[in-house]
Amino acid sequence: MIGKGGCPEQASAKICMRVLVITGAGVSAESGISTFRGKDGYWRNLDPTKLATPEAFARDPNLVWNWYCERRQRIRKAQPNPAHQAIANLALQADEFLLVTQNVDDLHLRAGLPPEKMVQIHGDIFMTRCSRCEFRRYEHEQEQDGASLPKCPDCGALMRPGVVWFGEQLDLRKIGEVENFVTGGDCDLVIVAGTSALFGYIIDWALRARGQAGQLIEVNPEETSLSQFATRSFREPAGVALPRVVDELLSNGSA
Ligand code: APR
């Protein structure tokens, strides 16, 4: 599997495999970013219907906006962990690769993962967009705590976080990118790490990508609805298991 003479798609690749990686909040947990449903997860103490729905934003836009400001500040202070680094390394070494992340943080990118090899299916917390027109912008600047809710410079409507809220459609262009990869040939390896895999499309993409013969590796300290389909499960933190999995791939071409 290791391409001595280089791999079919990429001469420079060291792992001649077609790889899909799917991640969730658990991958950023070791960077100090809360998960949603794990221990101390956001949804254990906070009500998602009060913070992550269009209705919540309509009801109390400042409450919602400030919660996302807090989360952006926390993410800016966080650093990618060995799980992010291992996935970035795999992205650079694998012949064909795509990361589908449910995470809205930028830790995969900051770990060096090429942006063209990633789809943030639930959006990007640093992107804000107008709640009415097509205006979007990237929130580079450190926000002033309690900064008031900005208005759209184009139409004057409220700006909102550029993430997908409960009850909202996924971005069709992003679904298209994932479908292109999933239907573009069976994967030799699918890794699903740090997600409770609650959404049907996550399980569907993982199983379709794996096809008949591919491997499906799950990395999660806890069982999930995907565990029954896994060919190997690592009941360990992603920051511990993923560097080992990727080292194994680099040393003998298969996990
Ligand atoms: N390493 C690997 N997995 C971990 C770790 C860790 N260090 N810590 C926790 N986990 C696992 C938990 O066991 C849990 O199964 O990560 C999973 C996190 O699950 P959720 O909190 O449900 O997060 P996620 O699956 O990403 O949620 C999906 O739901 O709330 C919405 O839009 C939000 O993108 C999010 C989506």
Envelope shape: globular
Q: What distance separates the N and C termini? A: 11 Å
Contiguous runs where pLDDT drops below 50 for at least 5 residues:
1-5
Strand segment tally = 9
Which compounds are bound in this model?
A: adenosine-5-diphosphoribose
Question: Largest beta sheet, briefly?
Answer: 6 strands, parallel
Computed Rg = 19 Å
Order of helices and strands: EHHHHHHEHEEEEHEHEEH
Number of helices in the DSSP assignment: 10
Mean pLDDT: 90
What structural category do the secondary elements indicate? alpha/beta
**Helix amount, in percent?**
25-40%
Q: In percent terms, what proportion of residues is strand?
A: 15-25%
- What strand line-up does the widest sheet have? 3-2-1-7-8-9
Commentary on this structure:
The protein is of the alpha/beta class. Helix content is 35%, strand content 19%. The strands form two sheets. The protein has a six-stranded parallel sheet with strand order 3-2-1-7-8-9, with helices on both faces. It has a three-stranded antiparallel sheet with strand order 5-4-6, covered by helices on one side. The chain is globular and about 55 Å long. The N and C termini lie close together (11 Å). The site of adenosine-5-diphosphoribose (APR) has 24 residues, from helix 1.
